[in-house]
Amino acid sequence: MALNKEVFRTRALSAIVFVIIMLGGLLWNHWSFLLLFSIIHVGCWWEYFNLQEKIQQTTYSFLSRVGMILVGYSVVLLQCGDAFQINGYHLSGSSIGVTIIAGQVLFLYGLFTDRNNKSTGTIVSAFLGVFYISLSIGFMLSLRQQNMNSLFGDFGWLYPMLLIASIWINDTMAYIVGSMIGKTPLSKISPKKTWEGTIGGALLAVVVVTLVAVWWLKADWKITAAIAATAAVTGTLGDLFESYLKRRAGVKDSGNMMPGHGGFLDRFDSLLIATPFVWLVVKIFE
């Protein structure tokens, strides 16, 4: 698979803009972090509905979409600890239950007042999105609240940054290595991925992230290497899962949020699967 310079240039330029926005949300403070991932949450859900409409051969009304997104966002807010409070009110307060019920009512009302026939698969697919998207972003918020009160200030961004950097480096290096020496297809789901690129990307991600984190951030090398390795492996599985959804839906990209990268799900597919596993790794090392 030859390296397509034009494609690589487009991906690189759009990635620069993307990185600037991501870094602003990740590093400014925990509120910018919440805002960033709230936007990601809505974007991923909307594209997930678009894919499921094609897969299930049905439609989700606007009310159904909003209702399920509310249910999912309630799951996200449940992970907000003491840091996320406004005038003494915690975002994970008792009103979450009301939001979940309201979201379910909206979803079902929109579903059954639509003229299109609805199948069990339509409902199941929507609720599975809570685990696929919302629970994962909730775990990301949980990771952000680690190391918030260290001796040197708010280092809550550390674990999310290590996770995201590992996925970015793995994705980029797998593309480059696969383009140069890749010969063995990884899976029929994503024919362009190769074993050579996948293994090379994962190894480089672990080495680069661990060396930079230990040298620059004085992070513990064991947990850093574990996060990087976990993110690289499970992130690839996340990419394959989204490719599977797109193949069933008969589309190339889930959306057009980023030129050369596609939509929200195209950009965050690896993160959605990797985050719960990295969260588990962090809990094991605590």
The proportion of strand residues reads under 5%
| DSSP helix fraction | over 70%
- Main structural class: mainly alpha
| Main β-sheet description | 2 strands, antiparallel
- According to DSSP, the number of beta strands is 2
The tally of domains stands at 1
Radius of gyration: 19 Å
> What is the approximate shape?
globular
N-to-C series of helices and strands: HHHEEHHHHHH
Given as residue ranges, the uncertain stretches (5+ residues, pLDDT < 50) are none
The first-to-last residue Cα distance is: 43 Å
**Average predicted confidence as pLDDT:** 88
Number of helices, where a helix is a run of at least 4 consecutive DSSP H or I residues: 9
User: What is the strand arrangement across the widest sheet?
Assistant: 1-2
Protein name: Phosphatidate cytidylyltransferase
Keywords: Cell membrane, Lipid biosynthesis, Lipid metabolism, Membrane, Nucleotidyltransferase, Phospholipid biosynthesis, Phospholipid metabolism, Transferase, Transmembrane, Transmembrane helix
Organism: Phnomibacter ginsenosidimutans
Pathway: Lipid metabolism; Phospholipid metabolism; CDP-diacylglycerol biosynthesis; CDP-diacylglycerol from sn-glycerol 3-phosphate: step 3/3
Explain what you see:
The chain has 286 residues and is mainly α. The protein has one domain. 72% of the residues lie in helices and 1% in strands. The chain has nine helices and two strands; from the N terminus they run αααββαααααα. The chain has a two-stranded antiparallel ribbon with strand order 1-2. A hairpin with a 2-residue loop joins strand 1 and strand 2. Helix 6 crosses helix 8. The longest helix has 29 residues. The protein is globular, with a radius of gyration of 19 Å. The model has no long low-confidence stretch (mean pLDDT 88). One of its GO terms (biological process) is CDP-diacylglycerol biosynthetic process. Belongs to the CDS family.
